[in-house]
Design goal:
The longest helix is centred in the C-terminal third of the chain and has 18 residues. By secondary structure, this protein is α+β, with helices and mostly antiparallel strands.
Length: 147
């Protein structure tokens, strides 16, 4: 019985070592260089923040209408892990969140070229609709035959 208790105590001591949090290195802490916040009684606000590792964030907003909606605009910038400078500006209003930045993907220009097989299918469907309108085709595709 003493052996079982001793083995249990050893297991608990070893398990405790397995779940120790890693020691924090002082380099993990980033200094806040600037943190300015202004919140007005009428709901308007501004804040600006900057950290020692190059993150800069700024936003301002104000209430709109009687339903508590807030229009805001701001920007942030930082250096990505690959060394790329990232800058984003945005507006958030009744039209939703609208970001702008060189790093964001861009949709292809429209109208883009339509492949020929799609044009052929559209023409075929138009011919089929015309034949059906003239009474040349009396049944829908897949409908059972009456013969």
């Amino acid at each position: 019985m003493k052996f079982v208790v001793f083995a249990l105590l050893v297991a608990v001591a070893c398990a405790d070592r397995l779940y120790e949090a890693p020691a924090r290195d002082d380099s993990d802490e980033i200094a806040i260089l600037r943190d300015d916040r202004v919140i007005e009684d009428d709901g308007r606000y501004n804040f600006d923040m900057e950290t020692a590792n190059g993150i800069v964030f700024s936003e301002s907003g104000s209430p709109v209408g009687d339903e508590g909606a807030i229009n805001s605009a701001g920007s942030f910038s930082y250096t990505a892990p690959d060394g790329t400078d990232v800058h984003l500006q945005y507006v958030a209003d009744e039209n939703g969140f609208q970001p702008q930045g060189d790093h964001l993907p861009v949709a292809p220009e429209f109208p883009h070229p339509i492949p020929q097989f799609v044009l052929d299918q559209i023409a075929f469907a138009a011919e089929e609709d015309a034949r059906q309108a003239r009474g040349e085709v009396s049944r829908s595709y897949g409908a059972p035959r009456d013969d």
